């Protein structure tokens, strides 16, 4: 298809004008690229698969596959690690973080996308900083402050800590999204007699919905997977799944390896469910940045 | 603003005019009006939850439990075991981030445009990002361990006689950084590439540029700013490596990264000033590297890349 | 939709100004618009015409000045409370709403009864002949159809004023002509007061009752199409109104109501536009269609021998470029079959040669060729 549409990138150094030749020469480079991708995926499959297989294995030592299969590790894990409670906390934290970060981030993104005002660059930089900083760097001072005000160790502390990277993330994903909406559409709405409120609710909100959904899901996924900040601020009752998983892993030897694996699988499936939901609404590439799918010529 | 509206001020400026309309106009002209209030929650948030704790930590780092204001920094840099964490971290993060970005370019270049299965590939790539480091660590322990599938395959192919040690050392952490970092870098690079108008390359082709020349003179310069940004974001991910360094690395030795040092100071020795000092060092190093990259980025062309959006 | 609903008898712009930083995008626009009038704001890009329109719409705050709808001041009102309709350059249709919903949007904002909304929406869609497309989304329509939706959306509210911002500039030539007629038809049948921004003088001349020519944020001339066509106020307006021949010359002597001008020993007689005293640097302008082509050897006032250099076929006429013996380049239109290299005599009716005071040292966009021009443009000779 590449040579048909004439899109460059067939991987031909010193290309001749003849099409068929070009196609033949293109092969090795393409193979190399695909080989790398496939190798990566094989390893990925191994990483995820070995956890999955182990979690169902009765016993697994020096063999290709476990000696037998059982589901008992799952009930073990569920009881040992009080997973019901942990999952509940995880959901509470994530949903609160998503809601709050959208509430705070979207209006800010709107202003940053649409307006120019003195100090805009500085504001943008400050909003960018939490994403550019390693979570541990600001996590430790943040946790210290949260402990000082008695917020850490509870749900509220975990939520507040997780907001720190989430709000900038919403701002960062929403700003380009808003920028690509023609500001004249807003002007048109106002010329049609819509006040600011109706303009936001009836015109802007439906147009922003895909972007907000995308960033909401992205924040959700990141929050469920966020280890460092939750780890630094959570108390025994406010651990999310990933933190509980870390604790059970670093205490290896106390628990059976397989029940840790079972917990890991529960975590994985939770993430995959989120991902499936996410991908119903957004293109995977759009999860990361603003993308324009170019039309075929 | 209240100063300019006060009657006093208008009297002082002389000519009679409507002060209300006047300062409104002047502010509106500079882009300041009521809509800026929408920014308020975010500003409040960033001040309370980011700037304040950050400066609090900065202040704390200069108030060590004993010694002068700089003694915690001196302690960190004076102790080879602690100081070495910087090089350990950089030794992991820089190669990993570079590899992730560099490997992404040809693959993304090959995979832009449409083809069957593109969506599937991108979906699969999002999986490791979603899983995060902790799960990856658990998987790597199983998969790369001495009795794991990877070593089994190597031995079955007679590439090695005894299992290669791939976990609980540098390589375990490195692989975990690739597994989570590569898809992230790839998706970013792919999106930057898709933002470049493909007709530009076609134009170059009609002007007689070969494949490599087109890439080198048209696509790459337009892609460079995006690559710089991607590198920064991937580097941040890799630099803050913590759980995998503990779980699949050798947290007491070759993968004792700086975040482990900070964590131990805070949560094992309860020395918050010292932990803050280490965190500040960590942030400073990271910001230096990012600023260098971003500074270099400002020297590149960063305007429109021909996309119509 | 059957008649006009005049919201005012006149709309007055009083010193409307807008600055961006230190730049005057619009400086003191004074204009009175009577109800039912079609006004075109005309000028090259960056002249401030879109700024003027946005100020009028309320989308841009004024830096100074005021806008009055009869005795009511409206420049302090937000756009949605001015009751104006607007058609945007790129249509600015709501991409997530059907054609019907786009048109009905304004009526819904006014909380009109459902029946009335339905009736008026259908009527507006019929008016722009889009009945078959009412259920489609804007993305499924062609440019011309989108343009019609934009117009229907603006006029369905029966606004007291319709603002149009280069509505035809995104259309191809054929469609542009069609839509031009359409807009004219709508204006005639609905009698809506309209302010229309364009950079296309032909479009402005054909549509408007009155034209406002802007340059660098300042009004150059306000007048009827005829006035602008035949009596441009200064050479900038002339340049913009199709006076492709603009020659820097020097006034010599008055000749009755006319004035003789000269450049490099080459003498013409023209109609002075403004104060021209002997010795002044002037700009002499004539439209290509007012240059008459005759046989070589003719000798009368304003006749000059020239050689045809470039010829463009343009249907019934030819557009040609000729060069006189003194090196002046002349654009002309003729129905004579001339060919490059032909020797001809060009003559200009003195009434049609307009002589403008040359206001500054700026050169016109179609300057005189080489030596004579260069010398005349020297600062010492000007003013």
Automatic annotation (TrEMBL), chain A:
<keyword id="KW-0812">Transmembrane</keyword>
<keyword id="KW-0472">Membrane</keyword>
<feature type="transmembrane region" description="Helical">
    <location>
        <begin position="199"/>
        <end position="221"/>
    </location>
</feature>
<feature type="transmembrane region" description="Helical">
    <location>
        <begin position="124"/>
        <end position="147"/>
    </location>
</feature>
<dbReference type="InterPro" id="IPR035906">
    <property type="entry name" value="MetI-like_sf"/>
</dbReference>
<dbReference type="InterPro" id="IPR000515">
    <property type="entry name" value="MetI-like"/>
</dbReference>
<dbReference type="Pfam" id="PF00528">
    <property type="entry name" value="BPD_transp_1"/>
</dbReference>
<dbReference type="GO" id="GO:0055085">
    <property type="term" value="P:transmembrane transport"/>
</dbReference>
<feature type="transmembrane region" description="Helical">
    <location>
        <begin position="29"/>
        <end position="56"/>
    </location>
</feature>
<comment type="similarity">
    <text>Belongs to the binding-protein-dependent transport system permease family.</text>
</comment>
<protein>
    <submittedName>
        <fullName>ABC transporter permease</fullName>
    </submittedName>
</protein>
<keyword id="KW-1003">Cell membrane</keyword>
<keyword id="KW-0997">Cell inner membrane</keyword>
<keyword id="KW-0813">Transport</keyword>
<feature type="transmembrane region" description="Helical">
    <location>
        <begin position="159"/>
        <end position="178"/>
    </location>
</feature>
UniProtKB/TrEMBL annotation, chain B:
<keyword id="KW-0472">Membrane</keyword>
<keyword id="KW-0812">Transmembrane</keyword>
<feature type="transmembrane region" description="Helical">
    <location>
        <begin position="36"/>
        <end position="55"/>
    </location>
</feature>
<comment type="similarity">
    <text>Belongs to the binding-protein-dependent transport system permease family. CysTW subfamily.</text>
</comment>
<protein>
    <submittedName>
        <fullName>ABC transporter permease</fullName>
    </submittedName>
</protein>
<feature type="transmembrane region" description="Helical">
    <location>
        <begin position="121"/>
        <end position="150"/>
    </location>
</feature>
<dbReference type="InterPro" id="IPR035906">
    <property type="entry name" value="MetI-like_sf"/>
</dbReference>
<keyword id="KW-1133">Transmembrane helix</keyword>
<feature type="domain" description="ABC transmembrane type-1">
    <location>
        <begin position="86"/>
        <end position="293"/>
    </location>
</feature>
<feature type="transmembrane region" description="Helical">
    <location>
        <begin position="170"/>
        <end position="193"/>
    </location>
</feature>
<feature type="transmembrane region" description="Helical">
    <location>
        <begin position="222"/>
        <end position="242"/>
    </location>
</feature>
<dbReference type="GO" id="GO:0055085">
    <property type="term" value="P:transmembrane transport"/>
</dbReference>
<keyword id="KW-0813">Transport</keyword>
<dbReference type="InterPro" id="IPR000515">
    <property type="entry name" value="MetI-like"/>
</dbReference>
<feature type="transmembrane region" description="Helical">
    <location>
        <begin position="86"/>
        <end position="109"/>
    </location>
</feature>
Automatic annotation (TrEMBL), chain C:
<dbReference type="InterPro" id="IPR013611">
    <property type="entry name" value="Transp-assoc_OB_typ2"/>
</dbReference>
<dbReference type="InterPro" id="IPR008995">
    <property type="entry name" value="Mo/tungstate-bd_C_term_dom"/>
</dbReference>
<dbReference type="Pfam" id="PF08402">
    <property type="entry name" value="TOBE_2"/>
</dbReference>
<dbReference type="GO" id="GO:0016887">
    <property type="term" value="F:ATP hydrolysis activity"/>
</dbReference>
<feature type="region of interest" description="Disordered">
    <location>
        <begin position="357"/>
        <end position="383"/>
    </location>
</feature>
<dbReference type="InterPro" id="IPR017871">
    <property type="entry name" value="ABC_transporter-like_CS"/>
</dbReference>
<dbReference type="InterPro" id="IPR012340">
    <property type="entry name" value="NA-bd_OB-fold"/>
</dbReference>
<keyword id="KW-0067">ATP-binding</keyword>
<dbReference type="InterPro" id="IPR047641">
    <property type="entry name" value="ABC_transpr_MalK/UgpC-like"/>
</dbReference>
<protein>
    <submittedName>
        <fullName>Spermidine/putrescine ABC transporter ATP-binding protein</fullName>
    </submittedName>
</protein>
<dbReference type="InterPro" id="IPR003439">
    <property type="entry name" value="ABC_transporter-like_ATP-bd"/>
</dbReference>
<dbReference type="InterPro" id="IPR003593">
    <property type="entry name" value="AAA+_ATPase"/>
</dbReference>
<keyword id="KW-1003">Cell membrane</keyword>
<dbReference type="Pfam" id="PF00005">
    <property type="entry name" value="ABC_tran"/>
</dbReference>
<keyword id="KW-0813">Transport</keyword>
